[in-house]
Amino acid sequence: MTKYRVWILFLAKSSSSLLALLGVTVVIHEFAHFITAVIMQVPIASFAWFDPRYFAPAFFSGSEEYTLGAKVVSYSGGLVTGLVLLLILVFKRKWFRVSLYRWFLGFYIATFGCWQVCQGILEGAFHDMYIADATNIFSLSYFIGYAFAFLGMISYWLLMPGVKGLIAKEGNN
Predict the structure, then answer these.
(1) Residues 5-39 pLDDT 10s
(2) Helix crossing, 163-172 with 100-125: angle to 10°?
């Protein structure tokens, strides 16, 4: 009975951490857009978490082209979030080797970190495609994001060995 209880607790902690990490990445991503817009003095017409098109429209700013500041703001959300997550992995890598739960938390962080870097590139360099495909999970921009996330998973798996030992350790508890 205790063996099953350990695994149920592990799954509950792991699932709730995944959801919390998802929420934290959204907050960091959007906050990075906002702070960068303020620093670069890009006019903000409105701010919505789902649609990153919060730059002043053409009738307000007088131009349909991106300014340098608007371009930087588009890149900033994903790049800042991805950098923060990947730096956590680099500087706290020993912390993620302590238990199976922490190993999976690092796995999630690597996955979301690479996904966010991709989102930053897509938002900045391919903004129109990013916006047009924002609601279609089968779009090209999403598949590129999936590829980056998979790259993060594979990289973490290769760079953080020892999961078999952690599984055995967890099973013995």
Answers:
(1) 777 887 888 888 889 998 999 889 988 888 888 88
(2) 140
Quickly tell me which residue has 């131009």 as its tokens.
63
Under a CB-based contact definition with an 8 Å cutoff, are residues 71 and 130 in contact? no
Q: What is the C-alpha to C-alpha distance for residues 49 and 53, in angstroms, rounded to an integer?
A: 10
Q: Which amino acid is at 172?
A: N
Domain ranges, ordered by start, for the chain: 2-172
Q: In the chain, what are the helix, strand and coil shares in percent, each to the nearest 5?
A: 75, 0, 25
Q: Both tokens of residue 104? A: 């999976």
Query: Tokens at residue 109, please?
Result: 């962080």
* Single pTM value for the model: 0.78
- Mutual orientation of helices 100-125 and 140-159 as an angle, nearest 10°? 140
User: Residue 22 CA to chain centroid, in angstroms?
Assistant: 7
Of 42, 117, 67, 48, the closest CA to residue 87 belongs to 117
Q: Give Cα separations from 98 to 26, 28, 128, 162 (angstroms).
A: 27, 27, 43, 10
Distances (CA, A) of 36 to 33, 71, 118, 120: 5, 10, 18, 13
Radius of gyration of the chain (CA): 19
